[in-house]
Amino acid sequence: MTGMSEPRESKFPAALAPQIRRAEAGDAAALAELSTALGYPSTTEQLDARLQSILGHPEHAVFVADTGGAEVVGYIQISVKRCVESDTVAEIVGLVVDERVRGGGLGRALVAEAERWAAACGLDAVVVRSRVHRTRAHLFYERLDYRHLKDQRVFRKTLR
C-alpha cells in the first residue's frame, strides 16, 4: 500500500508531477499492473472489463495519479456502501501507489480526492478494510485520522 513517511519532496520533475484525475478506459493496463503489485493478479483484459462496469456509475469512482499522461503511478477506488444494518457510507475498496514513488504524498492525495467525492455524494463517513498483515497501510490510515473499528475474516463461496 502507500508509504508511511511524512510528505517529502516529489520524486518527479515539476513537469511530470502526478495529477489526480478520474480513471479512463485507457488506464486498464496500468491499473492491472498496480492491482497485481497489490496482490490481486489481473490481466489488462480483466481490468478493462471491470473498469467498464464501474466508469460512469454514480455510486463508484476510480481516481488515478497520472504523470502528465506519461504514466499512471497509483489509483484509488471508492464506492457507496448501502446496508440495512448501518448508515450509508463510502468505502475505499482499493488503493495502491507504485512502490517506486511511495512516501511522496500520492496515497494521501488519492485518499483526499476520494474523501471529496464521498462528501459531494452527501456521505458522512469513509471506511476502509485492510488485510491484517498490511501494518504499513494501517499506520498510513491512522495518520489520516481513520480509526481501527474491528478485525474480521472474509469468506468466499464460488458459485460458478
Concise description?
The protein has 160 residues and is α+β, with helices and mostly antiparallel strands. The chain contains 4 helices and 5 strands. It has helices spanning 28-38, 44-54, 106-120, 135-143; strands spanning 19-22, 60-66, 72-81, 89-97, 126-128.
Mean pLDDT: 88
Going across the major beta sheet, what is the strand order? Answer: 1-2-3-4-5
Number of strands: 5
- Proportion in helices: 25-40%
Overall shape = globular
Name of the CATH homologous superfamily: Gcn5-related N-acetyltransferase (GNAT)
Domain module tally: 1
The count of helical stretches stands at 4
- Taking the alpha carbons of the first and last residues, their distance comes to 31 Å
Strand content: 15-25%
Provide the CATH architecture: 3-Layer(aba) Sandwich
Fill in the CATH topology. Aminopeptidase
